[in-house]
Amino acid sequence: MATDFANDVKLFGKWSYDDIDIGDMSVSDYVAVKVNDAAFLPHTAGRYQVKRFRKARCPIVERLVNSMMFHGRNNGKKLMAVRIIEHAFEIIHLLTDENPIQVFVKAIVAAGPREDSTRIGAAGIVRRQAVDVSPFRRVNQAIYLISIGAREASFRTIKTIAECLADEIVNASKGSSSSYAIKKKDELERVAKSNR
Prior knowledge:
By secondary structure, the protein is mainly alpha-helical. Helix content is 48%, strand content 10%. The strands form two sheets. A two-stranded antiparallel ribbon has the order 1-2.
């Protein structure tokens, strides 16, 4: 049993990284869920900010943990964020009966905007121009929107942040518009479409 456990890396000792299907070829290089990116805890203390694009190698669940540590009072409380993610993944498993890592990856693919608009300014005239979004930015944006959605949903309510995060991830993975991330993505894409 001990040797079996040592060879098989599972998140929180429960969720396997095997057969995680990313579903979108374009973002697969930037979603680190392959077996060699596997970790027991989303707390690797790696220096992912040293070089550009190095954070693409950071385990995807750890990136979610880091994005939960926002707003001054939560800065640096990574153990708290890890615990929130652990609870949220338990709830996701109860809601969907699937591997929560798989549900989270689906949510990221669904929640990243594919088209955005940028400001083009010349001589005081500013207009918006529609641009395609790179796969890496789609992943970053999706993680950011999911964590903001959870934070706003749990603020001043009885629901815990873990429950709200679980709801947000499940809804985003289904592409449901009750998810904050999906709403924002649709809005960004709509604005971009009108600025083509």
